[in-house]
Amino acid sequence: MKYNIYADGELIGWSELEGGDPPMGVAFGDFHPEPSYEKLRQIFQKYHGSGVHETPDGQLEMEWPVATVVRIVAEDGGQLHPIGFGITDLNGDLPPGHAPIDLHVALEGIPSEEYKKYFSGHWDAYEAFYRKSGG
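The structure corresponding to this sequence follows.
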């Protein structure tokens, strides 16, 4: 499933959030930026996703040099409500001439009901791993 990521109402990119850690409520994956991400790229490169908190109305807000509200919306229109969010963009740390590296996004502390609804495959893989390993 595709998850669109908005900053202040503008689509900045998307991810399939193909990986996860179910007990921690974490989902992560490759981040596919839209052209509008360029306005925020330097912030993510500098802060590497830190400085995000949840507002009283359940939105994520960045405490960086610019105030930004982040929303993550699933293909079915449902909104995810993680308590943490970050985009890893290390391209600003690369030496000149180095090929760009992939971007990644992570959501942390997704409420369990949302996690079960949207990431049941992550739970299935987690449980299968521990059944197989005897854990």
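Residues 3-133 form one domain.
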